[in-house]
Amino acid sequence: MVILTSCSFFLFYLHALPLVSNSVTGSLLQEEGQELNKWEGYVNWRNKPAMRDQHGGMLAASFVLVVEILENLAFLANASNLVLYLSKFMHYSPSSSANIVTNFMGTAFLLAVLGGFLSDAFFTTYRLYLTSAAIEFMGLLILTVQAHTPSLKPPICASASTEIQCEKVNRQKAAMLFTGLYLVALGVGGIKGSLPPHGAEQFDDTTPQGRKQRSSFFNYYVFSLSCGALIAVTFVVWIEDNKGWQWGFGVATAAILASIPVFLLGSPTYRTKIPAGSPITTMFKVLIAAVCNNCKSKSPSNAVMGMKTSPSSYTTETGEEGNATKVKVPSQTLTEDLEFLNKAVTEKTVSPMLQCTVKQVEEVKVVLKIIPVFMCTIMLNCCLAQLSTFSIQQAATMNTKIGSLKVPPASLPVFPVIFVMLIAPTYNHVVIPFARKVTKTEMGITHLQRIGTGLILSIIAMAVAAVVEMKRKKVAIESGLLNSAEPLPITFLWIALQYLFLGSADLFTLAGMMDFFFTEAPKSMRSLATSLSWVSLSMGYYFSSVLISTVNHITSIFRHTPWLSGSNLNHYHLERFYWLMCILSSLNFFHYLFWANRYKYRTESTAD
């Protein structure tokens, strides 16, 4: 009986063994498949590993594009017409109002660096957007309450022709105003520094399809910016002028509030990069280590850790340009570019805190190499600043009627906005596919070529602006209206020409910069690098103010009257200023070519 039972158990074991083996094998394969399905370095909105078949892609990025329409609507709804609110209702002088608006806009864009830094170092882009949107909402709510409540504003001012001076805003009311404005600026900075990289992170940069989709995303991101701006400079400006500023601020407040649930709707589809610590700390550590180790000694004991330098041995996580499609593991070798930094990797450092890896050194090199490209884009944004200043003033002296419709000069920014909205889809669906066929490369047009195209268009725009101003002044002289405030017998649509070229330049350069900085920067610094696009815009506005002041100072030395001074635009030498901008833009373009021709894409290093 025992023998029979033992035989039966042995036969059962032999029969069940393949089933158990198959079950274990299937379980192992399933676990391996789940591991392969995970996005390494990414989590979902619940802070769990992101899955390739569930998270990321164009659907997730689409939520970001809709959110950007609402966010830019909330920001530009007031920024585009804020100078009028400050001068008419808060009783600041025109010059003070202009400075307040310039400082507000500049601060908002500069704070994008803070948003990018926090996204890379401490917070995810997902959480930072929600926090920043809440801050912007609080700021707009404060401005809305102040605009709605008469006791929180100075008394309504009488006619400017009376001898009674308008009562200036007191400290308490001014404090409320600036609290609201700079809460908005802080929120906008956080959003600009987190939302574009959040959208770009949804694509798989290890595949050609993912990189193409990411490039399209940046094109449509600029398109979304324009959609929000179009509503802001038309519908909201009309509400502010005809229904009251409390309604204008109210629309902006509602827009940023609506963006939060829209963003949250996409939560199940997002993949979010895990913060990797402060990239700025890494940069300073490498720079300080390189300086200290170079100064310490030239002896063999401080030689690099047995690693030979190679001009093309350092590879990146992904191929980004041209035909490169394979992913290579970063090699432990140093490149010959910026060889001074190679000393940061030594056997004996001045301090253990300054111990650097090859990867850290090479990442810092990449950041330093994109800075000259960033600097070359500031001049273009200086040209763009003219669209919101002199171009509007020029149009105000001209015939602004289209048939029976009279277009207010404050709505003139609608022209570049419409141009961008028309050009962006055309570029993405016509120009890029054609360029890919001609060049037989993955990108068709490289990032640096896009930026260079934008710089060329800005040169043409300034030349066109100078010619149009010469024509406008000629009409003023011939019609005897040089000293008159009456509209000149010339249509303001001539000004639309420079808007066309500068709007096109903005599309090429802004989208190109974002894609370039995001693609080339190390993964640990992508949000910070992308925010440089907004910093360039901010510095362009500041440089415009400095340039105008410098021109007036220099020309006042050689002439009794500066080029750009006085209350009558017809007496300005604006055409000379535009020619100067054209010359400076041309010099800047040659400066750009110097760096662009020497720049080596990270993928090219991989290919070599």
UniProtKB/TrEMBL annotation:
Bilayer-crossing regions: 59-86, 98-118, 124-145, 218-239, 245-265, 366-390, 410-430, 451-468, 488-511, 532-557, 577-595
Keywords: Membrane, Signal, Transmembrane, Transmembrane helix
GO MF entries: transmembrane transporter activity
Annotated stretches, region: Disordered: 306-326
Topology term for the membrane: Multi-pass membrane protein
Keyword Cell membrane (UniProt): no
Location within or outside the cell: Membrane
Gene3D superfamilies, A to Z: MFS general substrate transporter like domains
Domain of life: Eukaryota
Signal peptide: 1-16
One GO cellular component, as annotated: membrane
Protein family: Belongs to the major facilitator superfamily. Proton-dependent oligopeptide transporter (POT/PTR) (TC 2.A.17) family.
Protein name: Protein NRT1/ PTR FAMILY 4.6-like
Organism ancestry: Eukaryota, Viridiplantae, Streptophyta, Embryophyta, Tracheophyta
